[in-house]
Automatic annotation (TrEMBL):
Protein name, entry field: Sortase-like acyltransferase
Keyword set, alphabetical order: Acyltransferase, Transferase
Keyword Phosphoprotein: no
Gene3D superfamilies in the record: 3.40.630.30
One annotated GO molecular function: acyltransferase activity, transferring groups other than amino-acyl groups
Classification via Pfam families: Acetyltransf_1
InterPro entries hit by this protein: Acyl_CoA_acyltransferase, GNAT_dom
Residue ranges of domain N-acetyltransferase in the record: 7-170
Amino acid sequence: MPSPPPYQLRSGTEQDLPAILEIFNHEVRTTTSLYLQDPVTLANRKAWFDGLRDGGYPFIVATAREGEGGEEEEVVGYSTLNTFRDTLGFNTVEVSLYIHRDHRGRGLGHLLTREIIRLGKERGYHTIIAGICTENSASLSLYKSHGFREVGVFRESGFKSGRWMSTAFYQLML
Ligand SMILES: CC(C)(COP(=O)(O)OP(=O)(O)OC[C@H]1O[C@@H](n2cnc3c(N)ncnc32)[C@H](O)[C@@H]1OP(=O)(O)O)[C@@H](O)C(=O)NCCC(=O)NCCS
């Protein structure tokens, strides 16, 4: 088995959005980690990016060097902290994390989670929420291992793949 490429973390930029779109839409099409029925557009991800930038929220990407001489940089995963009910005055952010399908199981989820928690503390947020489909055992296990604790389940809160999905909410106090 080839060894995994060395990964780098950096802040995400608008130029990363096409790669982010590809990762995101793959999840929409093939999994229940998102309940959306249809792929989104680049304009949708641009609006999302503008919200992150305007709110000063952390957005990090993981990159790998690709090509013969490793001259091309490819975005292979990302994580954000974003608003959670901000119009209601909650001092809370919600985490997102997506790893490209070809780069899973190599520690990138751990790497990005450690870094987004560090950034959350640095920015002075008080607590992070993770909303996870109860069928998503990889994500449940990952967040638990970083200290997130379950606070409740919204039963049948999304409909995907012909059935109702329940969503577990996990919380980390910073
Ligand atoms: C969940 C996800 C982020 C994990 O990323 P990853 O890079 O594969 O994870 P890592 O290799 O760093 O492994 C992190 C932990 O996740 C869990 N995990 C990863 N793959 C798993 C699998 N196939 N089955 C069960 N647990 C798994 C384990 O707890 C693992 O820790 P360990 O190896 O120390 O036991 C990735 O599978 C993904 O992007 N999934 C689709 C999108 C998604 O579900 N996002 C979260 C939405 S809430």
